Amino acid sequence: MQNQLIIFDTTMRDGEQSPGAAMTREEKVRIAKQLERLRVDVIEAGFAAASPGDFEAIRAVAESVRESTVCSLARANENDIRRAADAVSPAARRRIHTFIATSPIHMQRKLRMTEEQVLEAAVRAVRLCRQFTDDVEFSAEDAVRSEEDFLCRVFEAAIDAGATTINVPDTVGYSVPDRWGSLFKRLLERVPNAGKAIWSTHCHNDLGMAVANSLAAVLNGARQVECTINGLGERAGNASLEEIVMAVKTRADIFPVRTVIDATQIVPASKLVSTITGYPVQPNKAVVGANAFAHESGIHQDGVLKHRETYEIMRAEDVGWGANRLSLGKLSGRNAFKSRLVELGITLHSEEALNAAFARFKELADKSGRYSTKTCRRFCRTKASPPKTSASSSCRWWRTRKRASSRSRSSWCRMRASRRNPRRGARGRWMRLSRPSRAWCTVAPSCCFTRSTTSRPGPIPRARSPCGLPRTGGW
After folding, report:
1. Do 203 and 77 reside in the same domain of the chain?
2. Cα–Cα distance, 218 to 32 (Å, whole number)
3. What's the rounded Cα separation, in Å, for the pair 227 and 212?
4. If you placed Cys at 213, which of 62, 180, 311, 341 could pair as Cys (CB 3.0 to 4.6 Å)?
């Protein structure tokens, strides 16, 4: 029988520690409600003692969330713990997460405490937390660089004091999967009362192995994973919630656990967090990236059209995408091109017509790399011609030869600062000629540009006008 894997989301606490990712009270409430729809087990809403604003945000989340457990972080001191308890008090299910560093470098350089002092502080903090809630989590900060014997002593004492969850964090992203998994195995064997608590892992991504380390811990007894949406977090980020969840679900033959996550809410949660924090999701990001279910290679497209599982191990719909996507480009095959025409309602009555349209598509795709589906209709009607510019690009001064009735054929000029134009600014700006037809641009100190229907304007070589215009002049 599979055990439940608790998903502990720390997007609004550790994720908010990403530079520029600070969230307002209202934004945290929006994210919390989406996480509740996602059916996250524990939501770490913030660090109550960090600021009055964060305290109020945690309290607002506690008031609005009913199904998930709401948690606040607290250092192992009385003030932090009491602030955390006050912040989560309105929650139907609440947790206090207290921590203290246990590695030699942290104890000596940061805390300036001995091992015995750290042990006493940890026990005292857990006992105080138990006065406010029965759900207490204890973390040994920088456990990855801590002495294993001391870790065992601290964890045993914390469980005896009342901790119900023991979190083992790789605070600096230093470990590798094999070592991290074996550490969990040894801790569960060496701590006498290990069976009285749920063991948790919290991994950072400094070496790109946060998800791999977390999954290694799960294989060796961890039953809670601390993670964030989109892998947001301090420095290189945390383990990605979406990758943890889908790895466990997809490889149920390997992982003896299950989650209660509603995976169809993963993509909406990813988009919401990205919008609020301003951190874009890279296109090739696993599960939630725009290209996660996109195919451009003709061989892959043909396989997916015949049977999805030839190149997809998950269904796009299962994580909240509409469907997989066949991207048309120079690597696309004839079958994918034909499929896209069918989607657009374009009917070609012969194989010769299809072959001709596909040949034109390939010719243009080789030049520009990729075309949108809107251009498929043009491929099936006539051969495309090269784009035309609105003016000659052979000289510095130019004259329009046809009346431009649309914006795409209008004439443009960029003015630089000079004695004739002192108010243009040092960097210049774009200006459209008041009369596009039969208009002249004869300002000597300026650089002139033309606008094409498909490309950005570019500078025209400094050559004398073929029409013999003087090097000075005005509008």
Report:
1. yes
2. 25
3. 12
4. 180
